[in-house]
Amino acid sequence: MANNLITKEQAQSIIENNDIKTPQDIMGALKNMFKDVIQEMLENEMDETLGYERYDHDQPKSNYRNGYSQKKVRSSLGEIDIDVPRDRNADFEPKIVPKRKKDISDIEKQIISLYARGMSTRDIHEQMNELYGINVSADMVSRITDKLIPTIKEWQGRPLEPIYPFVFMDAIHFKVRTEGRVINRAAYVIIGVNLDGMKDVLGIWIGENESSKFWLNILNQLSSRGVKDVLIFSVDGLSGIKEAIQTVYPQAEIQRCIIHQLRNSFKFVSYKDYKEFTRDFKEVYRASSEDLALLKLDELEDKWGSKYPHALTSWRKNWDVLCTFFKFPDDIRRIMYTSNVIENLNRQYRKVTKSKCIFPTDTSLQKMLFLATDKATKKWTQRYRGWDKILNQLTILYNERITPYIG
After folding, report:
1. How far apart are CA 161 and CA 158, in angstroms?
2. Distances (CA, A) of 34 to 29, 37, 85
């Protein structure tokens, strides 16, 4: 095993050595791995009690190992038989599996919980050492958190709802070590809002470069998971996304995030003009109609075009995907004109990953993002405010597309 996650070749070796053919075989292999982790922890504790490592014949000894006692314990993977080391003086008091304790699932949960908070394997080692006085190596942490991998794969491939009125797409970037090099990787996140007005993360994909081919693959995966229709996509200026959406969901409306567009424009403006420029720009995106917005954009160009041409060029260039929200009532506009719903989730991702400058593999990054997603979405218990009114408006606008899915 490597210090963090197993390689593809090692995973193949595990599959072959354990004759894995079914999900039950996977769980059995994970169970054996967890047993090995607990056994190693117990051996480390015994080393600490005796004051010397096993097979160290040079140390003076006042106490000795004295075989093992078998013990059956419960974990989240089922019952496990472990061998608890004994010493001749009966001084050994295991902390990881105390005497008379039969359930050790809390150890797994604690390590996974620490991992979910963004703690590095070194931090977890120190935390477990402080709590239990035992050593938990990076390899142990990886082997315990690796049991998440089947869960992540199942989550990433789970069936989805047939229609989503709103889908938000964005990317957040991280550094990952690959073949001895540190490269930039993007985590592409998709959030859907269903007909009940509830948000859900539909998936997280780790990739290198944005392209229409890449997005086409992701959208085809959504389609294969049961998403037959999307009414409105809200996206950032992601390369190739427009073409991919039009290929898989040709009826969908595409709205480029106004907030991201404003940020890109404002970075060209000097501090002394910033307040006046932003005040003038509000007249564009807060206009009551597209015609009025174009009129205000003309006025903005007359006033600022010669001084800040780059701040305005992309508005004309991308107007076809910036103006979409003008077609809709205010209640729908407020949901679709920005992808801030993903920005809020990205802040949670940055919070748990801030201590990880570089991830050892894509899988290690995905594990941490999955745990952060699971924690964040547990708080998504309320539907959008005023959803009944919004759904009525959408039903009028998209009657034939929505009514087949309304019970």
Report:
1. 10
2. 9, 5, 17
Alpha carbon distance 406, 393 (integer Å): 14
Residue 151, both tokens:
């869960």
For residues 293 and 326, is the Cβ–Cβ distance under 8 A?
A: yes
State pLDDT tens for residues 134-190: 566 666 666 667 777 888 899 999 999 999 999 999 888 888 888 888 888 888 999
CA atoms of 15 and 233, how far apart (whole Å): 40
Count Cβ atoms below 10 Å from residue 261 Cβ, excluding itself.
20
**Phi-psi domain of 51 (left: phi exceeds 0; alpha: psi -120 through 50; beta: other):** left
Q: Do the beta carbons of residue 335 and residue 76 sit within 8 Å?
A: no
The beta-carbon contacts of 273-278 under 8 Å, at least 24 apart in sequence, are 273/304, 273/307, 273/308, 277/304, 277/308, 277/311
C-alpha dist (Å) from residue 217 to 40, 170, 210, 240, 319: 43, 15, 11, 12, 26
Distances (CA, A) of 332 to 127, 181, 319, 327, 371: 47, 45, 19, 10, 31
Tell me the pTM.
0.69
Neighbours of 344 (CB within 10 A): 11
Backbone phi, then psi, for 206, in 5-degree steps? -100, 125
